[in-house]
Amino acid sequence: MSKRDTVRNLFNEFLRSHDARITNETWKKQSEEFRAFWRDKIMASGSSYSDNELNRIIQILDVKGRRDPNDDHVEGAAFVQIYQGDWENIFSGIKGNPEVKEKLNKILTSNDDSSIINAINELQRINPVKKLTCISAVVINDLLFAYNPDKYTSVMSLFERNHIIDYFDLGDSSELEEKSYGESIVESNKLVVSLGRTYGLQASARTQAEFLYSRGVKNLWREGDPYSSEIIGAIAFIKFGDIPQVYSDEYIDEFRRGEWDHWNTPKDYMRGAPGILLLYDPDRKGITIQAEVTNIKKQGSGNFPYKNAIDPDSVIIFDPPISRETIRNVAGLESFARGQTPKYNLKRHMFDDLMNNYNGKLISRVRSGQSGHKQYSLQKDDDGIKIIGDGVDPQTGEAVVQTRLFQSAFRNSILKLFDHKCLFCDIDSDLLLVAAHIKPFSADHSSAGDFANGLALCHIHHSLFDKGFISIKDGAVIPSKGLISTESDFLNEQYNELSRLSYVNLPRGEKSEKYLKWHYNNVFDHGI
Length: 528
Prior knowledge:
eleven-stranded mixed beta sheet; 15 strands; two-stranded antiparallel sheet
């Protein structure tokens, strides 16, 4: 069966439980409500809006917007991972800045794509409103959809649009990487909306988007997403060729000395997300290097256009290399290096199995106080990975540093998932944030690298969470009554503030529930 026939069958099945007519009527009504709010409460001179009026609009924009049980039912546009307080700040910032307001009004009301693109690019240049022009463009796309749901899709994230464009053969998402911010927004919308025309689906842009996120369809196009399919990186073949200053007999020593801060590749192996890059050396018939990719940029159209920035301090050298036979013993990698595939997606279980099955020595570079760097050998035991350095007694364990191979990549990924902000408060500085495990490493080694087992927390709320003074059940924040049984005014105030949080947005949703249930049953202080 062709992909076209498969998509059409899935769409017909979707329509059996979905009333497209009601969807269209709902968004006609809600768009009119949003337009009236924009015209009368944002653009009108001397106007203002009440908290209830704004809450209603946020409900239209965001599935997780604060709900009033006395309100009429509102259908949220999408789950955009923007906190209620951030939405409030966004609208306050728009309202209070005439230049931003005028640019955004042009974006929403213009019918000319060139004018919209120019206005978006100019807004990005001048914008002082936090998150309004975020890299995924979810806020701009959400506002565009609410204002004109007939023209714009409710697939809000540019990253998810790219997955859809590639999977359904609607275009080449890599070409969008060369475009401006405004061009990416406008042109990706056109490509995603073209799904109906391409596959012969008679449906509005909204109905198409709901189909794309329906059960059985979403998993198809999100397969390459590192946060939905547990892909944490890639195994890439090393190809030296005639590249200047790169020599197959020297690169390992150069990595060992910390001389590499990037590794160029012919394709975007990580789909734009930080992760682990394992380098397979065909000459040595094994994986020689592990490095954490911290950023990915497209740099022209040469043979190796993707520049993967790596953290030199994250580099691990496998001595000897992880052999091809060891790799092929991992589920999902049985056919490794048998064909022409230049890279392999690396899933969490694959990485764990590789590390568990490898019996060689791992050489790591770790920062050594003010004295720079030293090289250390890593030894595995029942407690995880230990770094054994010069002058350290392996018998007594004195000065032994505990580490985990995935710790740095886990932190970067968790902070990104939570938009670099504490789940329970407004602290948004990476210096003050921790990538906390819901179920700790000591309780379950196997879940240490599962992104669903992570929360971004400030140091205060991390401590309260680990001590059982906070938990989450069915999305609701539950502070322990143990906080108010103390004589601390600060802890009493924490109880009051946490009690005002009705629920929190969890990026991994249902996948985090099993860990939160464990925390609620085993760690949370149920108090009196």
